[in-house]
Specification:
Length: 280
Amino acid sequence: MAQVLVLRVPPDDADAATGVLWGIGINALEERLVDGTIELRTVVGDAQLPGTVEALSARWSVAFETVDAEPAETWKAFAAPVDVDGVVLNPAWLTPPDEGVVVSIDPGAAFGLGDHPTTRLSAGLVARRTRSLVAGGARPRVLDVGCGTGVLAIVAAMVGASDVVATDISSAAVEVAESNVMANRVDDVVAVVDTPLGSIEGAFDIVVANILAPTLIEMADDLRGRCCGTLIVSGLLEEQMTRVEAAYQPWVVVERRVLDGWAALELSADERVDRRPSGQ
């Protein structure tokens, strides 16, 4: 049997709680939206337990569930491919489809298979915009901020981006993203780095950040500063859209997408940006 820590926090506290868990050394988290709050779940070893409870209980309510051993492996039996705008996000241990654009993902210790609503929303917007630029003769550069397992960076490469930079401050995420990039044979296009956003040089045609609302608001200037075309942000709840949109003004919202209570925004500094679906 194993102990699963269940931490429920207000949406605005999710980044802080995640940071505490990463600081303790916990690098495998599952994130759920439950009754308007963010639920963070992770398996905690006996050695980590005292420090984890002490670090969290002062600010949030901590609960535990007892589950069968190796729950991280058990969930794999329920994983399934997800089709997002013509791109199939396929668990690496399943046989891939014979046709179409297939991204094979193994979440490793960083989680992020691609089936979370924010990932699906972001992937769809990245695929559509990248294809549109390629169809117009461009060779788009893409920046994936907070890349996690590398899903969005790989999607961009698979549909035609010429140069993709995927960055994450978590060493565990960088390691898993690099592995997925190699497995999908896009290592000639995608560079995975742990460089902070403020130190990344150059401008990108598409910048995508699938993080959480408080961090998106905090990083608004830096994200806009790296983008010379389309900015895609997600990781926010539907009711947080107004606050996030306000933080990115005077940039205009090109598209809003919502799925299961989560939202993604596509923004541009130029209100004349092409809004047509790829290929039209």
